[in-house]
Design brief:
two-stranded antiparallel ribbon, 7 strands, globular, 5-stranded parallel β-sheet, 14 helices
Length: 368
Amino acid sequence: MKVRHVLGISGGKDSTALAVYMKKNYPQLDIEYYFCDTDNELDETYAYLANLENYLGKPIKKLPEKKEGIDDLFKFSLINNNSYLPSPRSRWCTVYMKLRPFESYIGNDNIISYVGIRGDEERSAYISKRPNIQSIMPFRKNIWSDDVITKSLGFGNYENLIEIYKDKISSNTKNDFYKFLIKDVTADFDVGRKASVLLDVDIITFNKLIYEYLKTTEYPLALEDDFPLINNTDILDLNDILGILEEEGLGLPGYYNKIPIEVDGKKGYYNRSRSGCFFCFFQQRIEWVWLYEQHPDLFEKAMGYEKEGFTWIEGESLKEFSRPERIKQVKLHHIEKIEKEKSKKSSNLLMDNLLSEDEEMGCSICVL
C-alpha cells in the first residue's frame, strides 16, 4: 500500500524553507505540496507561492477544489456559521478552510505530513485524530509528534522497546542510551523528559528505535521499507530558516518588508509577521495598522464583516480602531517596544521581525 508524503505551504517563511530543505536533502521522497486557499490571502502571499512553485519544479496543489457557485470560501463558510466571525475561542475558520479541505484531499490514504516547526519553537504540531495521518517535524531535534512519543515511551510498551533495542540497535550505540531507556517513566520522569534525555545521548539511535517500533503499529510509517529522516540530526532555528531562503534566492514574502513609520519624532517600522487571511484575528494591532495603510481596500473589506458584538479585535471594532488618534497610539507603542527590545537584545536584530504589541503564536494549525 502506497504512502503519500505531503507538505503544506502556508505562504510564510517556515513552510517555504521546509519545502526547500526537503527538496535539497531528501530528493528521493516524492513529496506533494498543497496550499489551503481561503480566497482571502494577501497578493504578496500569492506572488511568493508562484516563486516557490517555480523553484520546486512541481505544482503546489490549491485546496479546496473550486465548486460552482462558491467564489469566496470564507464568505461561504461565514454564512454556514450564522455570520458569526471566527475568534480565538471559536476557530471555525480552521475547520472549514483548512482541516476539511485537507482531509478531503488525502481521503483514506496513508499520509506522512511534514510540518515546519523550528527547533527553537516551544510548540507541537497538530495531531490528527485520523490514524492514517502521521506528522514529522524535520527542523526539530525530536522529529516525532507527541502521540508517537507517548505511545512509544509510555506505560505498557516498556518491554517492547527493550526487546527492539537489544535485537536491532544495541550493538551500534552507547551504554548511556540503554541506561536511560530502562529507567521507569514516573511523574518526575515522564515520556517527554525521557525522550529529551535519550535524544541528548544519541539522536539517530533514538530515531531508529522509534522507527523500528512504529513498524509494529498501524502508523503510516509501518508501511515504508525505510525512512531517510531517521538519520537526520539537524536542528534549525530562525536564523537557519532565513539563511535557507536567502541562499536559494527566495527571500521572505513581501509582507515581511519593513516599512518606515514616524510618530512624534520617533522612528521605527512595521510589517506583517505571518501568513494567513488578511483579516486573521490572531494578527497584532500594529499589523492591523499595516493593513489599514498598505491595503486600505482589504481593511475596508474586513470592517464590512463586523457587526455588533462580533469584531476582529476583541472589544474594539475596526471603525473605532481606524481613528487617527488610535492609529497613532498603536504606532507609538510599537516603536517604543522595538526600542526597548533592541536595547535588551542588540546582539540579534533579526528577531526584530517578530516583535509584537500583543504576541500571539497564531494559527499553528493552518499548516498541517
